[in-house]
């Protein structure tokens, strides 16, 4: 018996005896709780090289010593990290002949997600689906269904061009050196409590490498979905754009209704080398909990980009409508001279949702530029905080930042806070900050209604208008979906 | 049957009674003008018909196509065919006039159980209507009323009215803030909509609008009541003598 299999057996036995219930090997689930054995189990399941297991264990040991951060304006009960599962993989036949063989439950899920998937066959890994779709311009989808990529599409096609687009587990097997070189180079394991936890237990995610000089001709996309009950999701995404390359990556998420809080702590690392550009767009629509605040996802994400090369550029666009708790600050480290960072954000909180979100722009190189446009909408009894940092280091001659931070309140029980930190250690830097807080006026509502638009749609229309500057930066595939989402997430906020 | 019939309508805001027993019936195909001094309750009348929140109807009723509309929300009334051209059109940042009108049009269609308008058809409707009203194309692509001049706002409202084709058009002081050229354009737009099945209630302080939109019936409004009703010549008489006679009487 191989060592990895032995470990799996051992941990499975552990689950049976120690915790009083059996581990269903069929569902490929690690026993509840987090110990070094859990991490060994994950690493063994994924057949990882020794260095990665050590990396994980190092992170885990550091994490145990770290306090959970408390500075965010978020209020939630303590999370019991031992009361969660850290590994669950869906069962999947390796190869399917046609759509009929695909688990109908899986297909129904795709439908419910309402994602613009042109070919579900492709997504479900039906043989020959790639040929069926060949020649069609479109979206390459790497679907993350409960921790493990069930399908990677357009892979062969992209590979021909030299683009690596696969799950990070596959990349670990196929390109261990590349993974080792970049993993943790933007967000080191000990960066923060949640990133550290992720480093210890990350299950899957995407890996992208765009080679020198190539403009990736299609949008790369991944859909995350949390399926198994109580499964913490610890996605790890790594995108590297080599010199002079360009890539646009879309990430979208939905989750079904759940009664218990679910923890999500992802890490996304982007690396842009000289003259490279990465555009990263997210639509996040996880279950926000019910009207009284019961259920909902806890979303603690670390997203960071290193604009390492000269003239490199990274643009983050996010539409955040889901989750009970959002803790998220997609950031740019502007290291290369003339590099640029952008952050466009729409965050909607309704009912009892709480979001503490923003960005960090760290200007290190000369003539670095950053632009922040944040639109926060708060309805019901929701609380929302924009927290942003613009830091200019002494060497960053000619650094410039523009920040625009607008809040829209709906009803009289929601709240919006703006906490912009600005630190400049270069007297020549130009920093601008604009902020507004407004309300949907009765006059606007009456005007819309007088034209026949019902109150709910009127709110959606007005809010979409408020977010327009940001929504316009989304790729077409997402823009329409995002507009609909804006309306859906504010349902019940009026009348 | 009148298009709209208002019977003994009393309405108030808070404790203050503003409409004190209005009786008015508009037949299809006719234009009624309501004239009166500031503060007489003219705008209140249009808002009560349109169903704006904050006004309490204490007595009387409004029948639209024979149906009592007391229980209908503003958007339901709008979809039933009531349109109000605002004295002060409201700005909606980030929402283009085109997007806005499409939402309004589709709301009507949805209520009527029809499919949404096809993009090509909508585009053509917008273009044709804009051309007819001599409305600059760029106005349609700009956010609703944002940065519009006073004249542009009123023209945009009439443009909306032309696209939505209501059966009852309420024009609330549409002439206010318009220069003579804009007044002409707006009036032409309104006149182009006059038809046997459509009725108008034109609220104005001044007679000059009525030189362009010639009414069939003129009502003089003072202190929450209609104090005199006559034909178009009544407007001219008012222009010459002012409202003093009526405000004293009321």
UniProtKB/TrEMBL annotation, chain A:
InterPro entries membership: Fe-S_cluster_assembly_SufBD, SUF_FeS_clus_asmbl_SufB, SUF_FeS_clus_asmbl_SufBD_core, SUF_FeS_clus_asmbl_SufBD_sf, SufBD_N
Biological processes per GO annotation: iron-sulfur cluster assembly
Domain SUF system FeS cluster assembly SufBD N-terminal: 148-215
Highest taxon above the source species: Bacteria
Every SUF system FeS cluster assembly SufBD core domain range: 224-466
Membrane-spanning intervals of the chain: none
UniProt cross-references to PANTHER family, sorted A to Z: FES CLUSTER ASSEMBLY PROTEIN SUF, UPF0051 PROTEIN ABCI8, CHLOROPLASTIC-RELATED
Family per record: Belongs to the iron-sulfur cluster assembly SufBD family.
Protein name: Fe-S cluster assembly protein SufB
Provenance organism: Roseospirillum parvum
Highest classification ranks of the organism: Bacteria, Pseudomonadati, Pseudomonadota, Alphaproteobacteria, Rhodospirillales
Automatic annotation (TrEMBL), chain B:
Keywords annotated in UniProt: ATP-binding, Nucleotide-binding
NCBIfam families: sufC
InterPro entries found in the cross-reference section: AAA+_ATPase, ABC_transporter-like_ATP-bd, FeS-cluster_ATPase_SufC, P-loop_NTPase
Taxonomic placement: Bacteria, Pseudomonadati, Pseudomonadota, Alphaproteobacteria, Rhodospirillales
SMART domains named in the record: AAA
SUPFAM superfamilies: P-loop containing nucleoside triphosphate hydrolases (SSF52540)
Residue span(s) of domain ABC transporter: 4-248
GO MF terms, alphabetically ordered: ATP binding; ATP hydrolysis activity
Descriptive protein name: Fe-S cluster assembly ATP-binding protein
Assigned protein family: Belongs to the ABC transporter superfamily. Ycf16 family.
A Pfam family reported for this protein in Swiss-Prot or TrEMBL: ABC_tran
Recorded superkingdom: Bacteria
